[in-house]
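Lecture notes, unit on protein representations.

Consider one protein chain, 261 amino acids long.
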Amino acid sequence: MKTIRTLAALMGAAAVLTACGGSGSDAGKTLGLTNPEIHFVHALPGGPNVDFLINGSALQTNIAYKQVTNFANINTGNTNVSYASTGTTTAVASGNFPDVAKGHEYTVLALPALTGGDIGLIDDPFDKGLLSSSARVRAFNATVNAQNLDIYIVAPNTDINTVSPTMAGVAFKNAVPASGQDSNYLNGGTYVAIVTAAGSKTAIFQSASFSLGNNADWLITSVPIAGTLSQLAPGQIHLLVAQGGNTSQPAVELTNQLTGQ
């Protein structure tokens, strides 16, 4: 659990944030003062609309593929999460956060499985610096039956042979940085996303250029093309960008420039 800063530090930071137009909500999360928040990402290609359940009760309903729900406040402590076909409470897949804590953001993902569906869980402690305007970025592998992936978030025309992956060795059902660790921080700017099999420098996915804004909160999720199980060739993998916030919106699907898909 994150360390709570002193009241004097909070007051000083609040004054600076006000002067700079910063986010008081982000400061509250960093200081561990705000209620824990949770949202749901439907990353199951070809899957039906689902309801997102907390401790067996529907929190958000009728969620379609690629939809990212708004953050909702939840209670602290042991919390069960699941998703079910819309209008039912019979879980397709379920999981558990044993110690939901104030100031943390939680993400639940509907994932593909070899048969049926699976679930992914991320606990984000949100340890962003009080005065930071950097973007927060994390990767998640939802490509069942794939090898581990390296994901590069780099400036356009970067030769990836000369740089290390931004998020390396992202395994199925796992995030990098891992659940329980803070996100990576990048400066706002223009980037491309490149994906390779872990340890390889041969791209299987490369996006068009995109803008990453200051203070953005991105979860970049690899997903299989609907109907495929092997995802390690061009055209068999997509990237979904789930943008954190309090407005329900679909994930942005990045197009693979290697195939035009």
